Amino acid sequence: MKRTITLLFLIFSVLSFAQTTDYKKAPLKKGANYFDVVNEMRQELAPLTQSTSKTDIKKIKQFERWAFYWKDRVDLQGNFPSELLGFYNAGLLNADGTIASNNFSRSTQSSQSWSNVGPQTVPDANGYPNAPQMGRLTSYKKFSKVPEAQSVLFVTAPVGGIWKSTDNGATWSPKLDQLAAIGVTDLDALSIDANTPGTIYVSTGDYDADHIKSIGVLKSTDFGETYQSTGLSFTLDQQETTSNLIVIDDNTVIVGTNQYIKKTTDGGLTWTNKYTHNYNDAAIGKFHRNGTNIMACDSWGGLLFSSDNGETWIQLIVEGNSYTRHATTADEATGIFYVQNEAGQVSTYNPVDATPTLTALGIPSTGYNAQGVYNQAIVVKNGLIISGGVDAINSDNNGGVWYTTLNNAWEDNTSAGSYGHADIHEMGARSGSNYDFWAVNDGGLIYFNYTGIADEKPTVNYISDGVIVTQIYSVAISPQSEDHKIIGNQDNDGYSLEMKNGTLQWVSALAGDGTCTAIDYTNPQIRYLGAQNGVLSRTDIGFPSYDSATFLTTPTTGAPFVWTLKMNSTIPTTLYGGFAEVYKTTDKGANWSNLNSGAGQISYIETFGNNLLVIGENGARKSSNDGVAWSAISEPEANAKLNSLSLDQNNNSTIYATVNGYVDGSKVFKSTNGGSSWTNISAGLPNVKMTQVVFKQNQGANEILFAGTEIGAYFKTGTGNWEKLGQGLPNVNISDIEINYTVDKLVAGTYGRGLWEISINNTTLGVNEIATTADQTPIIYPNPALEDKLNIKIPNNTDTFEYVMYNVVGGIVSKGQLNPGVNTIDVKNISTGVYVIRMVNGNFVSSQKVIIN
């Protein structure tokens, strides 16, 4: 029996929240203040914080993600910069907004190449009935070929670039890595034939979420391999939006901007305004074309129509006074247009009528939720109407009754519809049977097919397996090797890399937004995965199923949406949580105590041994006795705020820091007196947003630093300048970096291009070290250690060695002096695992891996 969603639910959803602060448009408004907008929105959303309604929860999530995106970009006064400022400053874009020709900087010292370490394909569902997928996509284009297996597909992402498949979706490769952090709204061409693809056009930015502004329209004349700017490019201060595209022929294209509908007839060389809106923030778009007829909407609820391929336009609905818009489509068989407003009401418009008018069709689609204007899509084919919002709702009787058909909360076959990832951005009809469709959503690209018009449970196939656009918040690494990891993702829960059914693989783990992670470096089965606002779960057996972790009781009141968790570097049962204050647990999260640092709500934690550094809303604090006593860390400069810290655990007076915002030359700082005063060490860094600085521990006199930025990773050794680290990493935001000391690799979680790693062996970084000769090298035995003893034989022809033994995260577990002859180290109090012993004799260094059983 078909299952309906009652009208009562719709009424409740509509009435439960009335948003008055238009936060997405704030960066466009002169004088807008980030802190004021955040305070106003949190007050407005406060009544929803106790709600269990998914509609209410999603409203909060959408805002908090926006707030987190801007947190480190605004200046201390709350002024918004351009979202594109870092890309201009780094030379990726020219001053006129066009793509710079030499825009993929390379390292001169580090010749190592980055490797993507996953997940490259959708993780095992692990029992998850509505399992997470790889990340949001915004558009889809197919070029057909015979045989079908050679058809060419394209998808685009709001962060992660453009992806192309030449084998009908079996494998995918990225095509815009030099601008991977800049969003893509749409890709289209007139042709649908892979043998004669013609010119491809690309609309940039993130039209739906409005996080990234457009750099204009790009084009490709080599079937999507490379892209060039057209005459529609935007300078830094224009803060523009471009919509989906209407490609009429290889030279004729229509696109919407904030105020205009623009058209080119010369392949993008010049663009003419064909319609001028009353407002300069209308974000005209959601175009749909049938023949010479085109429908478009604006973000003030207005609706526009052209019957002459976009030369002239009329208003079918005059814009209102709230941020709303319509979704549009047309029935290709009849030419009738269908439009749906934000309240879910579908109307029709038949251009061939003598006096065409908009006519309401049926009742509003019950259960429809567009999250403002974040997800709106509609498609019609052979009498079946499918409406896309958070879920897909369909009707087979002209909107008289609506049914859930793609259900993001699907549990089993008793649930309404079939499983489809939440938040549908575009949909369309596929060639084939009467009821074949495609959709792009926050998980990727799906094909879905109905056996007939009355079928409410379509067959759903995920097509974009291999499109790596996962938006990572946090990554944690295992004790034994690089083979075990856990990551937390935006809107796609967590992925845990572990052994399952005898195979090392990525599996799904329940989180919602996976905001923080940790792995016990003495036992990789013990894993932590945090969700938004301080929610935390722990598993002691890995993830044999997606929900095998136990949710812990944490001090969630006042915790940030994206919060931080840090494990003590030598005592894995001790963790620190960034809630309304910094809290500590010594029993794996069972109980928490407030350390009362005075920093307020915490945004960053760093710890080595008894050293604890935190950054909060009231500034930065440090403790050298595990939080018993605290002292203030000063801000490096008056015009910036600390947003990450690192320290030398062998000399805790040496601290490194990054700051927020876009002040040229003010990026990374060093203190040699515990944070009382600072030296600027930013030379070589472009004026981009800094994410994190990490000091490589236990390298003796060698100072080695790594920094994550919004355009990739940089490194610095000694007194040298910063430079780009390695080869092949897309220009994308680094959200978290960790060093795996047992394999000497840097692991980087990116926001939009998944997880990467690179060798950071000192010699590959240009660090001048002299390896011990064969007759000088210390001999370690037995290895693995037996009976709690580890012997190190120092040749009699050498002098004394100093040694440091440290774990996967760099925490020191033993240190001391090794004399000529046999030295025995007691390891009975050192946990099982893989460790590194670094032994230094003057300028000679020997680093060896040891195993403690």
UniProtKB/TrEMBL annotation:
Gene3D superfamilies: YVTN repeat-like/Quinoprotein amine dehydrogenase. Residues 780-852 form the Secretion system C-terminal sorting domain. InterPro entries: Secre_tail (IPR026444), WD40/YVTN_repeat-like_dom_sf (IPR015943), Xyloglucanase_GH74 (IPR052025). Residues 1-18 form the signal peptide. It comes from the Bacteria. Keywords: Signal. Pfam families: Por_Secre_tail. NCBIfam families: Por_Secre_tail (TIGR04183). PANTHER family: EXO-ALPHA-SIALIDASE, XYLOGLUCANASE (EUROFUNG). This is T9SS type A sorting domain-containing protein.
